[in-house]
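Hi team,

As requested, here is the filled-out complex form for the protoporphyrin IX containing FE run. I kept the field names the same as last time so the parser does not choke. Let me know if anything looks off before we queue the next batch.

— J.
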Amino acid sequence: MLAANILFYNQKDVAWSQYGPYWREIRKICLVELLSPARMEASKHIRIEEAYSMVKSIRVNCEGRKVVDVHSQIYGLTRSIIARMVLNRNYFASNSKEALEFKEIGTEYSHLLGVINFGDFIPYVGLLDIRGYKRRLMAARKRMDSIIDKIIQEHQEKTTGVSTDASIDFVDVLLSLKNNKDYQHLSMDSIKALVIDMLAAGTESSAVTIEWALSEILLNPWVQEKAQQELDHVVGRERKVEEADLPQLKYLQSIVKETFRLHPPGPVLVPHESTQAVQVTGYDIPANTRLLVNVWAIGRDPSNWERALEFSPERFLNSNIDVRGYDFELIPFGSGRRACPGLALGLASVQLGLAVLLQSFEWSLPSSHEKLDMSEVFGLTLPKAVPLHAIATPRLPHHLY
Ligand code: HEM
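And here is what came back:
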């Protein structure tokens, strides 16, 4: 694919690289070095700080029952978490020239990756580059390259060896692995491509999920009531909810599962391909067959789910169905060897984000939006067509904001 080739340094990242020895090595770096349980633990202060910075900003903006732009708040949260974890710098909370350039180029990347390029299917159309698509890709990559080069240079100047210190970010870790004999394929281009991959993959999916969850909660007020009763019971109103509370919040976890079922952030998994000929339930599948898995349809299929179109977190309370890729009726993170390596981070960000929003505020619809628009935009991800706005009423003592 032309876009992935140009934007990700000849597909040197993990998401766009073909299965093989290179992908195996880079995938191992993601799982063992970047998104490991130890790194999750070391970075939990970032998630908490950013979650409560969002609460503070909503608290200021909801004064006098003003309508809150919930969409921007949630996207701000997930972008800030990932930028701090990857770069140790929150580009998204700043309005510096550098930060604005970074945000602009990020938007251009998402746009270019979402475009259908006929040259990917008809080679001579690609050679002509009639619509200037290739030129635009090259320009975007050049701009991104100079930003990432600068970031890497700054990190190289400060790197004096990596410890498990909480201030260590993904760029530090990747630079420290460059001469590691276990990772012989790791080049400077791989590092740049991985940095872009993490920033892109780590933001949108988590934000989209929190926004859908809160939208469903607004349509089903008894869900909000039950989730807040659980928060009051497990955490109380005299302290703020933390990541350590999440395992006890079973109803909140069920809300997140139910949101993944009805609104999977990746509605159709990244295309998979059979590496060899196989037989599946009596059908012969030749090698190199492209497989598209429609997770969205699986989640709404009445042969898998009772009252399939109803939002009912209760269905998960006494069920062992999980999102980790073993229960094929619910696979928002995919399944098998290409399944999402960011599952733990994605889940923690979504559950914590939702928990702080529900503990800190009572949510209601503005009278002008009584009919909440639940239309979807279908693409690489599945965001709401109309960004969520709502009224937030504080429900904790003043000193906790
Ligand atoms: C709610 C949050 C998230 C959801 C629902 C999600 C979902 C997915 C899905 C469906 C895939 C494709 C799996 C397949 O085709 O079988 C994927 C791949 C991937 N995700 Fe996530 N993701 C989330 C968060 C994250 C985060 C936080 C990161 C890292 C910072 C991340 C990094 C990746 C990468 C690198 C891949 C490509 C893996 C490969 O091709 O080997 N994701 N994700």
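Two things worth flagging: The pocket of protoporphyrin IX containing FE is lined by residues 14-15, 27, 30, 197-198, 201-202, 205-206, 209, 265-266, 269-270, 332-335, 338-342, 345-346, 350 (CB under 6 Å). Strands lie at 67-69, 272-273, 278-280, 283-285, 290-291, 361-364, 389-394.

Thanks,
J.
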